[in-house]
Structures are given as C-alpha cells and as structure tokens.
Amino acid sequence: MQALSEKLPRFIRNNYATFTIMEYMQGPATCSQGNILCCTCGIPIPPNPANMCVSCLRTQVDISDGIPKQVSVHFCKQCERYLQPPSTWVQCALESRELLALCLKKLKGSMSKVRLIDAGFLWTEPHSKRIKMKLTIQKEVMNGAILQQVFVVEFVIQSQMCDDCHRVEAKDYWKAVVQVRQKTVHKKTFYYLEQLILKHKVHQNTLRIKEIHEGIDFYYGSKQHAQKMVDFLQCTVPCRSKASQRLISHDVHSNTYNYKSTFSVEIVPVCKDNVVCLSPRLAQSLGNMGQVCVCVRVTSTIHLIDPNTLQIAEVDGNTYWRHPFNSLCNPRQLEEFIVMDIDIIRDQKQKAGAGLRSNKHTLAEVWVQKTSEMDMGQQYHCRTFLGHLLNIGDLVLGFDFANANINDEFLNKMNPHHVPDVVLIKKSYDRNKRVKRRNWKLKEMDKDREGMDTDDERQYQDFLEDLEEDEALRKNINVFRDASKIPVESDTDDDGAPRISLMEMLEDLSLNDATGSEGADMMTD
C-alpha cells in the first residue's frame, strides 16, 4: 500500500482533500471533492487556499484599499478641455473613450498592485460636475486565493482656466504677431482676405485682431499658429513675408530663451479695378500684351486684361516682385461717363506670339462723354472690354488719361500714341436701388478698430458690388441669406444690375433660431 501511494500523482498528494486508494483505483469518474467548513463562520464551502467563504474573506481583506474613491479632474470652461497631467489639455466628450483613458490615468499609480478587469461610466446629470466610473479589479490574497471586487470611483470636475485661454483673456500676452500690410488706398483685397479667413477658420487661434490704417495685425500665443497664418496668406494672395524675433528673457541655468516673433507680410499694392502700366519686359513675357492693363481680379494671382485686345494674363507674387508695377489710379479718381456710341469689334487679328484672350468679355469701340461736361460737347474715343454690357446711354466709370497728371516710370517712356485717352473700368448702376434689393450679407471678424477712415463704408459697398458682378470672385467665400431684410421688388427698379441668386446663399444658423431668443426655452412641436 505504501508503494502504491508513492505512485499517486502529485496533485493528489498535495491536496487538502482526503482521497482513498480505492477511490483512486476506481478512476476519476467516481472521485468526488468534499466540502470543508469556513474557519470563520462555519458554513460548508468548497475547499480553497484561504479556507474561508467569500463573505468572510471580503470582511477580512479589502483589495480596493489604497485606491481613492473620489478624484478631482480639472476642466476649462472656455475651450471645454480637460487637463491631462502634467500640462496637456485634451478635448474629450462625455462618456467617451478619451475621457475614460484620462480618468484611468489619474488612478494608474494607486492601481499598480491590482489587476483591472473592466471599467465603465455610470450615468450622472451633465450639470452635476460629477463623473462616476464603475471599476472591476482582481487581486491575489491569502494563500494564493484570487478575489474580485466591484466599486465606484467619483471624479469631481473642478474649473481651471488653461494657459491658452489665459492668454486670450489677457489680450496683451502674445508671443507672435503677423502684420499684414498693403500700400493702397482701397481695401478690397483686405475685405476679400477677411472672407477667406472666416471661411477656412484660420483666425480661431488668435488672441487679438487689430485693424489699423494700412492693414491688420494678428496676435498669437505660439509661433506655430502665426506660421500657419503666414502660410495661408501666401497661398491665397500674392505677397511676400519677412520674419524677425526679439529676445525677451533668458534663463542661464536651464539655457532657455523667450522670444517674441514678428512676421511681416506685404501684399502687392494692386487692387481690383486698378489701371496699371507694365514694364516692357514683363509685357513681352506675358504674350506681347499692351503695357496699359486693367486689374479685373486679385486672388492668389493678379488677373490682368488688355482693354485694346482682350488679352488676359496672370501675374503671381514672385513675378510681381521681380518686375514691380504701380497703380496709375485709385477708385476715388474714377469719373462717370455716358456712352454716346458703341461699335462691337467682331474680328480682331492677334499679333504673333499673343497670349490667351478672354471669352467672358467683348471688345468694342465707344465714344463717351463726361457727365460733368455735358454742356461742353467734348467726347473721347477708346476701346473697352465691356462691349457685352454697354449700350448707348449707359453710364460707365473710367479713368481720364487725357487730362490726368501721372508720374509713372513706364508710362512716361511709352509712345503717346499708344496711351489711350480714357480707360473704362466698369458699368455704373444706381447704388441706392442695389442696396434695397440686396437680401444677403457677409460675416465679419471680431477685431479692434483703430484710426479708421470715414470712407470705409463706401469702400465696403464697392466690395459688395464687386461680389455681385463677379461670380468667380464670390465662389471662394460664403454668402449668407439675410432673413431680416426683405428685398423690394419693382418693375421700375430693374436696371439690369447683377444680383446673387438664392442658390448661392447659405443659411445663417444661430442659437436664436432654435430657442426663439437668448435664454428662452427650446421650442418643440
């Protein structure tokens, strides 16, 4: 019998239960494990290494001891981000995986001796500033017994403003500034640039936007955000930039430096509806077009058209700075003419090496007279690219070269016979009627105004009229329907002025649309 017992498997010899030799010889089908009494309460239980029932074991051992049941989480109200120690702020939605990971990291140090089995959120009121999490953990306790426990940890949300929002509220604390300048009288390019910034939301990281006489300043809390703005400007308007930095402080112990960076961006000094005179070399490189051209649009390039041949060309920023040219007139110098006679030019022969011609315009020869000199009978003959818009008796805005005193390097060297007497820019409509019919609006950036000109309102109306007349210009911006303005329709008001259709307008969504008014109850059916 002793020799037979030595041949028994080790798990039977080491087991606390009593097995007989006969039971082993009968096979495992007839073996049965007996119950033992709990050493604390005395109830029958299956054998376990601790010789205790689960209830008594939990009274003796608390595996969640050392894990805090209430933890603080810092939340920024302004940007709605949570603090992830030591100094990172992350965006997390309620009951999201990101928020679950952030809360578990707060408990990571105290849960090093237990095993996490499951974790999930318990529902709480969104405004209670409480986040409850249900955790399931396991731990090995007395004599190798594994105990599993479920408990709840409450996270208290405490308000704390992040560093970025501190800089926004301070308005004077900045580390980088982008200074955008354009040396022109009119601000059409700035109005167009403002709409592009609003559409692409490039201004979201700005601490402050300050508008001055010749441009706009964008203040940022980091150099990287300022660099993104510079890259955006270089892709949307023809410009050149220069960067500089100034040392603010220096820590000799940690060898760290604190700089303030300045980015200077200069936009080309040419706006829409400007008359320019190109250098002979540049005009030849653009397809032997005439030197006197009209700027019809400024986007990422300068779009020029020759009023004598309808030849078009595009000049980018790099080309402009290699061959710069100036504007010969500004919108304030435009005069009003009346069309006395017009003759459409059907067949126009192109010169050798000529570039592309515009298909949206029509070449015509016109006789015009100033509306301020109707009693004098002085008429001017010129060619224009507005033949598809003009009729006899229409009013048109143009620049009078014959009676103007212009000091330009390239214009003074031109043959006087090649300089036109008048250059017509655009057809003139009744502004009051256009304002009454306008049922759309544009959004504006929240910026500080300083030293503003009294002529800004007229310039802004000019920009709105340009959007109505140029479909290619307004396709890059967002036009919103103005629900508060009812357009006035009348048969006598239809003077052929271009308008923006409802298909091109967006609905201006605001919180008042859902609540009726600020602070009112939500309207339901």
From TrEMBL:
<dbReference type="Pfam" id="PF21193">
    <property type="entry name" value="NMD_SH3"/>
</dbReference>
<dbReference type="GO" id="GO:0000055">
    <property type="term" value="P:ribosomal large subunit export from nucleus"/>
</dbReference>
<keyword id="KW-0653">Protein transport</keyword>
<feature type="domain" description="60S ribosomal export protein NMD3 SH3">
    <location>
        <begin position="270"/>
        <end position="316"/>
    </location>
</feature>
<keyword id="KW-0813">Transport</keyword>
<keyword id="KW-0539">Nucleus</keyword>
<dbReference type="GO" id="GO:0043023">
    <property type="term" value="F:ribosomal large subunit binding"/>
</dbReference>
<dbReference type="Pfam" id="PF04981">
    <property type="entry name" value="NMD3"/>
</dbReference>
<dbReference type="GO" id="GO:0005737">
    <property type="term" value="C:cytoplasm"/>
</dbReference>
<dbReference type="InterPro" id="IPR048899">
    <property type="entry name" value="NMD_SH3"/>
</dbReference>
<keyword id="KW-0963">Cytoplasm</keyword>
<dbReference type="InterPro" id="IPR007064">
    <property type="entry name" value="Nmd3_N"/>
</dbReference>
<dbReference type="Pfam" id="PF21192">
    <property type="entry name" value="OB_NMD3"/>
</dbReference>
<dbReference type="GO" id="GO:0015031">
    <property type="term" value="P:protein transport"/>
</dbReference>
<comment type="function">
    <text>Acts as an adapter for the XPO1/CRM1-mediated export of the 60S ribosomal subunit.</text>
</comment>
<comment type="similarity">
    <text>Belongs to the NMD3 family.</text>
</comment>
<protein>
    <recommendedName>
        <fullName>60S ribosomal export protein NMD3</fullName>
    </recommendedName>
</protein>
<dbReference type="InterPro" id="IPR039768">
    <property type="entry name" value="Nmd3"/>
</dbReference>
<feature type="domain" description="60S ribosomal export protein NMD3 OB-fold">
    <location>
        <begin position="334"/>
        <end position="427"/>
    </location>
</feature>
<dbReference type="GO" id="GO:0005634">
    <property type="term" value="C:nucleus"/>
</dbReference>
<feature type="domain" description="Nmd3 N-terminal">
    <location>
        <begin position="38"/>
        <end position="267"/>
    </location>
</feature>
<dbReference type="InterPro" id="IPR048898">
    <property type="entry name" value="OB_NMD3"/>
</dbReference>
